Amino acid sequence: MDDNGQRIDVYLSSKTSLSRSSVQELVSSGAVTVNGMAVKPSYRVRMEDRIQVIFPERETATLVAEPLPIEVIYRDEDLIVVNKPPGMVMYPAAGHSGGTLMNAIAWHADRLATVGAPVRPGVVHRIDKDTSGLVVVALSDEAYFGLVSQFKERTIERSYIALVYGSMKEERGEIELKIGRSPLHRKKMSTRVKRGKPALTSWRVLERYSMATMIEAKLATGRTHQIRVHFSALGHPVLGDRDYGKKTSLRLNNIVLKIPRQMLHAERLGFSHPVTGKWLEFRVPLPEDMMEVVRALRGAFD
């Protein structure tokens, strides 16, 4: 092939409608793999190379208000705090044009912030689709910038409840491992990276079972999939996590307990109101699907 030996950014630019700089961004983000491995923009293509490009999802252009049932914990003219149910995506994207948390908030709120429009107005943080619990969304631009500042300064307090596989040896501890994009799987994160971002998770044991542990985890940083990646790195993945542990069932007293999703719940959220300065703090109990697993674990342990 005449292209043999070309830089991969030059090669892909010539084969697609993308500019060389756009290709370089895709390569650097890990969206381009050669023979299943991430490469650098300077990589030289070879005759037998199998090149795969995963293009980023494109956002839909509009946010449609939908009367979806969500639990509103707090709301005023500047912000809204909701208890996101498991299985709900944060905002519209390719494959999820509706049925998202932001579609619901657009219905329940009288107004939305302009920052982040059209489909992510006021979004200052997010939790994964299969994680349940507390989310705050700004409804005014002033609140948006105030909350973003608090996240940046790490003054917002967040606590999660997780069921992790196995028995934690200690009663409490800290996990300080850098997190970055996995060199093998573009959509996954990993602690086994050369250039990761600092990440700190503190934790303590709440309950112990025969094959699992309930822990409270507090985030000092907010890296993508941080709790899931950190506990997986310790050998104690979150139960039901299909990306970082695959512990989707447990055998308890000759009964197979199926784990419906990752057992992770954003239980507590505390922050200063970005407009009034008043300290706000919220807690929500574990959802029923997670409590069913807890009851089964307790029963097997007794």
Please characterize this protein's 3D structure.
This is Ribosomal large subunit pseudouridine synthase D. The chain has about 300 residues and is an alpha+beta fold. It folds into 3 domains: about 10-55, RNA-binding S4 domain (Structural Genomics Hypothetical 15.5 Kd Protein In mrcA-pckA Intergenic Region, Chain A, Roll); about 70-155, Pseudouridine synthase (2-Layer Sandwich); about 155-300, Pseudouridine synthase, CATH 3.30.2350.10. Helix content is about 20%, strand content about 25%. It has 6 helices and 16 strands. Strands 4, 5, 6, 7, 8, 11, 12, 15 and 16 form a 9-stranded mixed β-sheet that branches. It has a 3-stranded antiparallel β-sheet with strand order 2-1-3. Strands 9-10 form a two-stranded antiparallel ribbon. Helix 1 packs across helix 2. The radius of gyration is 22 Å and the shape is globular.
What attributes does this structure have?
single chain; 302 residues; alpha+beta; Structural Genomics Hypothetical 15.5 Kd Protein In mrcA-pckA Intergenic Region, Chain A; Pseudouridine synthase; 3 domains; nine-stranded mixed β-sheet; three-stranded antiparallel β-sheet; 6 helices; 16 strands; 27% strand
